[in-house]
Amino acid sequence: MRKLRRRNLRRLMATGASLSAMVSLVGVGGVASAAPSPHHGAFSGMTLTALDGAPTGADVKQTVEYYNYVAKVFKQQTGATLRWQYYSSPSQEVTDIETATVSGSGPDVISYGTSFVGTLWATGDFTPLTNADWNTLGGKSSFMPSTFYDAGVSQSAQDITNVNAPGNKYIGVINEVNPFVLAYNTKYFKEAGIAGPPKTWNQLVADGKKIQAKVKGVYGVAIDPQDPYDPWKNDFFYDAQLGGAKPWEWISPDGKVVNFDTPQMQKAVQFYFALEDQFHVAPPQSLGWNGSEAAAAFEKGQVAMFILASYGWKAAVQGTPVQNDLGFALLPTVPYGYSKLPPNGIPVETETTGNYFAIPKYVTGKLKQLALQFDKVTVSPAVQLYQFKLNGNIPVNNAGIKAVEAYAPESKVFIQAEEDAIPTSAAPVWSYVEPGVLTAMHNIGSYLATHGSKWDQAYANQQLAQANAAAQAHA
Amino acid sequence: MTAPVKAPPGPLAKSYTAARPGEGPAVGSWWAQATRKWRDRPLWMLIPATAALVIIVLVPTAITVWLSLLNVNVHTLHEWLGAPFYGLQNFVNAFTQPSTLGVTLGWSIFVSFAFSLLTTLVITPIGMLAAFSVHRRFRGRGIVRAIYLIPYTIPTFVTALTARVVFLNGSGLVDKILGGLGITNGQTYWLIGPHAYWAMQLTEIWATWPFIYLMTLAGLQAIPKEHYEASALDGASKAQRIRHVIIPELSGVLKLAMLLSTIFHFGNFTLAFVMFGSPPPPGAEVLPIAAYYNAFTFFNFGDAAAIAVVTMVILMVPAYIYMRSTRLAGGLN
User: Fold this and answer.
1) Which residues of B touch A443 (CB under 8 A)?
2) How many whole angstroms separate alpha carbon A316 and alpha carbon A295?
3) Are A441 and A310 within one domain?
């Protein structure tokens, strides 16, 4: 089994570029005043339109600041004007992309989230980036290898983890990444006499019980089976740890066979809900929670751990009772009931999400060059650090990582998590797989909630099988 | 001297020969005859409106119907008009195979019907009673009328988000009240499982009853004062006045309100989508949700179009009744 650790290699590659990047970052509040690039005059008078999500939610101000900053640096670097175009919902995003690709006109750069790449590729409206394009961005080796997993499609399962495989077609350039790790309440751990965060799922369950025994009214861990993302992610990493079909093999490389209904997956689902129905370390009401509600429970001090937390939690807990008690740790990697990783198991320490920019086929010539300059700006150390300061997004390349590590040492756990991330499948049928797994998880959670938390493996298996079959019908 | 006009051949020849003395020469009368219908009824003035109707309504409708007959997905989207012809397969699939969300189109139709009809049936008496309560003058009537409108003025997504908090199990207001009254154990899961439908239903009722209230109030104000006076002179009691004067006078506006209400609730997407997150529980999978997921999550535009066509056909029934009730249909005939 391939062990996906490339930390040391990356660090070697990173050293040179990072040092020079750091020099440029020293200055106004840690943000470089970018000097005009050699291309400055070549694009003067041109306008580039970039499609991205509208500033909404709790971080409106930060997102607006980020967009303005990128536009400012872009102007400095290229002499061209950057115009942001927004979508306010996933449906509008899809509509905008559909309209652009069908009509052959629209935004010059289109942002997309992880797991959407297969759909974009299937439209046939995005040209893979060439090696020359990547060289414009500093070369593939300047990026974290895991950031390529959702940048395009691969010919085989082996190629997915080989960035330089000739069959890989990368259409997206990542600009931000968000690895999810374990959040834990350091105060409760101390009160319960626990030395540090759990390394195995046995320890997590035991720690949860200890804390419940010592701290009255507090549950060990929050689950959020009704969230629109988290449940499939929990299955994703636990399934990989158990050594079943690799998560990137939930769909065959040719996209024709869907196979996530495996014994390991059934076990992954069972363990997730066992935190509530068997070990009783998750509160019963969490069967109805989504991510926000689980986070709220953590912020109120009602639970001691949450399984998929981003760096953004650091800002979110400010002003709450747990603002000084937040700790981050990599996810436990040894499944429950095992003393070590099972055969073929992968020590997955995270699940990640991120944002990419793709250039549609209709953008050609000088405009495409300008679009690449835009990508270059978004991955520049100055912008990466600025983004981290604003939103807590983790950098995507070596220079950015070095800058952020120097600025915020506590970010290291997230950077390490990102380095060890594993891929999902990029086949278009993923658009049925993800909601299928989510539907199964939602239904199983609902079943438990209405059946006195009594686990029914047959019902759970039937839900997974149904989701697998529904996805297979569209493969 | 005008040269004799030769009558054109065919049916118009008669009009030439039929020109009576004193009516002047028959020059152009065949043309006048031919265009009289248009001059009397200047239908050409409808051309802009007709063009707008064609562009805004007929073309999208035709495209939707055509899409429902094609296998349009993410692979074929780029050349969607040339996508493989699928016949009625999208409809057959939608009705016979559970979607990735685990339900069939038949289930979504059932949920939508139940949701819209039940909402209308419940909010009608509530809205009427509210309108009756503020029809007569009293001190503070304006304030009460304004308060009645509050649920209706709140955007649906805000209502949905609020409802999510209110219906949380254990800590939500509903569970606290019902648990405090001993009706439930205070630990009911309203947002998942079989109760999800009822949470959605109750929220919709709370948010939309002022529509019936508004329509009823407008109807009450349109009843001539003399009718009340006449019934008073005849010695009618309050109940008799409601039964024999108010209800008959309100029946038209009430029927219209109930129709519009049903159509509106049938198409409500936001409440289910925001209140339950993604994917929603089976009890909240109304037709617009089914169409949305097929189009924007699965990128199966053929199936989504089929669901849209089915929805359109269903809604044509109350729409036709609505047109008849407002005499539009009669006017067109």
Assistant:
1) 102, 281-282
2) 9
3) yes
- CA distances B227 to A471, B133, B218, B230, B239, Å, are 65, 19, 16, 5, 15
ipTM over 0.90 threshold: no
On whether both A143 and A160 belong to a single domain, the answer is yes
8 Å CB contact of A446 and B298: no
**Residue A60, domain member (yes or no):** yes
Which pair of tokens denotes residue A54? Answer: 């509208």
The verdict on residue A2 lying in a domain is no
Cβ separation A285–B277 shorter than 8 A: no
Residues of A in contact with B171 (CB under 8 A): 285
- A121 and A76, same structural domain? yes
CB contact under 8 A, B278 and A228: yes
Number of domains chain A contains: 2
Are A49 and A129 in the same domain? yes
User: Which residues in chain B touch residue A431, judged by CB atoms under 8 angstroms apart?
Assistant: 74, 297-299
- Give the model's confidence band at A474: pLDDT under 50 very low, under 70 low, under 90 confident, else very high: confident
A474 neighbourhood in chain B, CB within 8 Å: 73, 100, 298, 300
Residue A406's domain spans which residues? 7-179+353-419
CATH code for position A291: 3.40.190.10
Average pLDDT of the residues of chain A: 88
Is residue A223 one of the residues assigned to a domain? yes
C-beta atoms surrounding A149 within 10 Å: 24
Do A199 and A323 belong to one domain? Answer: yes
Residue among B74, B100, B190 minimizing CB distance to A119: B74
Q: Residue A352 — φ and ψ, nearest 5°?
A: -125, 160
Residue A92 lies in a domain: yes
- Decide if B97 and A290 are in contact by the 8 Å CB cutoff: no
CB of A455 within 8 A of CB of A274? yes
Which of A419, A434, A463 is the C-terminal boundary of a domain? A419
Query: pLDDT for B116-163, tens place per residue?
Result: 999 999 999 999 999 999 998 999 999 999 999 999 999 999 999 999
Domain annotation for chain B: domains and CATH numbers? 1-17+27-41 (no CATH), 91-332 (1.10.3720.10)
Q: Which residue of B has its CA nearest to A117?
A: B74
Chosen from B67, B74, B90, B185 to mutate, greatest number of chain A CBs within 10 A:
B74
A470 contacts in chain B (CB < 8 Å): 97-100, 102
Number of helical (H) and strand (E) elements in chain A, helices listed first: 18, 10
Say yes or no: A453 contacts chain B, CB-CB below 8 A: no
B189 CB neighbours in chain A (<8 A) are 287-288, 446, 449-450
Mean pLDDT is lowest, of A121-130, A209-218, A242-251, for A242-251
Residue of A102, A230, A474 to mutate, testing the B interface (most B Cβ within 10 Å of its Cβ): A474
CB B224 within 8 A of CB B312: no
Residues A262 and A409 in one domain: no
Q: Are residues A42 and A120 in the same domain?
A: yes
Q: Are residues A448 and A373 in the same domain?
A: no
